[in-house]
Design goal:
5-stranded mixed beta sheet; 5 strands; 2 helices; about 10% helix; alpha+beta; about 110 residues
């Protein structure tokens, strides 16, 4: 099982956290299962960018983003070369480290 290190985020996990990722589980699903409430306004259907994360380590171990994900990422706040939608990115056999950007394009938190 791989591990996901989530870097400190002042609202979601001020101290940061390391969580285990179950097989075939997206970054978003793993975070939510461990109490890190990453915003996901479209219910993880790849229709928005609120779950945008930046992969700081282990990016190469993820499958390539789909064309739909790439198009959506163009609209994400704070886009970087290693940006992914956490609802679409599934870690494989390697540990990864992510950063949740401070902002997203959602004006109102959905409090899922």
């Amino acid at each position: 099982m791989s591990k996901i290190k989530i870097l400190p985020h002042e609202e979601l996990c001020p101290e940061g956290i390391i969580i285990e990722n179950l097989p075939h589980e997206t970054i978003c699903e793993a975070a939510l299962r461990n109490g890190v409430n990453i915003e996901h306004a479209c219910e993880m259907s790849a229709a928005c960018t609120t779950c945008h994360v930046v992969v700081r380590k282990g990016f190469e171990s993820l499958d390539e983003a789909s064309d739909i994900e790439e198009d959506l990422l163009d609209k994400a706040w704070g886009l970087e070369q290693t940006s992914r939608l956490s609802c679409q990115a599934v870690p494989k056999d390697k540990d990864i480290e992510i950063e949740v950007p401070k902002y997203n394009i959602n004006m109102v938190s959905e409090n899922h």
